[in-house]
Write a structure and sequence with these properties.
With 163 residues, the protein is of the alpha+beta class. Helices cover 32% and strands 13% of the residues. The two termini are 15 Å apart.
Length: 163
């Protein structure tokens, strides 16, 4: 089994497990290797060292493992594209876990999002947690009507199980 460190064009870093180098290359050529955060299929291998199991080691201290890039330096408006690419893998994993939780606990109403939100707001149907698609104009109209909505781009990997 080959464990590869992979990266997409957006700078998201993730791990892939393949039976062999040929298996990785074949899956990549068929477009089967995608970033779990943004679904980009332009994937490159990163340099990685082989894992050597040389026995037990003492756990690392928090100071030694603290990331150099802190959220405070990301800017008041949130991270830019290039800053997001530098997010530590643990933060990327946390975002993916949160997105999966949202998917697991909401109903996907698709293109009917604005209609369903209005129906719930007017008491026509029971309120429930929903997600779906709305145009920017529809989102503005919902907000003007007093219906609380927010955009939440969900990565493709959050909508399906990992294999």
């Amino acid at each position: 089994m080959k464990v590869l460190d992979l990266q997409c064009r957006q700078g998201h870093v993730f791990e892939g497990w393949f039976g062999s180098e040929d298996d990785f290359q074949g899956q990549k050529q068929r477009g089967l290797v995608q970033c779990p955060l943004c679904a980009d299929d332009h994937i490159e291998k990163r340099l990685s060292a082989p894992r050597l199991n040389l026995g037990a080691r003492a756990p690392a201290t928090a100071e030694a493992t603290a990331p150099a890039h802190s959220a405070a330096t990301a800017g008041a408006q949130g991270p830019t594209s290039s800053e997001a690419a530098m997010l530590p893998p643990a933060l990327q994993a946390a975002w993916l876990a949160l997105a999966r939780k949202v998917v697991a606990n909401t109903e996907d109403v698709g293109e009917r999002f604005a209609q369903e939100a209005r129906r719930m707001h007017h008491g026509e149907v029971e309120e429930r947690a929903i997600r779906g698609k709305a145009t920017p104009d529809e989102a503005v109209q919902l907000l003007e009507e007093g219906i609380a909505v927010m955009p939440l781009p969900l990565p493709v990997a959050a909508k399906e199980t990992l294999q």
